[in-house]
Every structure is written in C-alpha cells, then in structure tokens.
Amino acid sequence: MKAGDELPELTVPITRTLIVAGALASRDYQDVHHDTEAAAEKGSPDIFMNILTTNGLVGRYLTDHFGPRCVLRKVAIRLGAPNYPGDTMVLRGTVTEVADGTAVVRVVGANGLGHHVTGTVTVSLPEGTE
Description:
The protein is of the alpha+beta class and 130 residues long.
C-alpha cells in the first residue's frame, strides 16, 4: 500500500429503515431523523441521516477494507448534501499517507445531490499490511 492507492468503492442504499435505525442506535431522537411531517415543517423534503450514522458507515468502509484488526485513530469528517431515503451513497477512499503502521485515507461519500461526507481517517494497520 502506498499514497495514491484507491480503495474499492462501497455502495450504500439509503433506506428509511437505515436512517431511523441509525438515529435510534446513536440515541439521536431529533424528529428530523424519523418523522417525515416534522422534517417537512422544518423545511426538509423528507427525513435525513444523522452524522453519527454517517460516521459509522465511514468506519465500516475502512474496516471492510483494512480488516477487523485495524483501529480508527482519528476520524475528521464534514457533512454536505443530506442523505434522503431512496438515494444511494457511494463511498470512495484514497490513501494519502502510509507511515509507522498507520495510513491516512481521504474519504468522500456522494449521493444524487452531491458530496454527503468528506474527510480524512487515520487508521492503525495490522502488522504486515503496509
């Protein structure tokens, strides 16, 4: 592995169930993550995914690639376009650094509206991965 290597993409269907389950699992009871009418009253066309669910999907993307023994050391992400039900998010990653048993990966998750999530993740790699 070296800087410039691209990770295989991960396609995530954005379902109503995923959005609601992610909000419940992270104890985010904001109505915009489970109540369509409340979301509409606040100006949103539908419920939308919370950042903690996005964070979990980014983590899954990296552990799927590097394996269950890798450790996420730093996750620095920013949200952009919302993830609404019925859309699809495609996660892509590019290794930007590899040194001393760690890798830094630039991650972008895009949906039909644009970039939903962008950021970097620092991962400790299992021995023999570098």
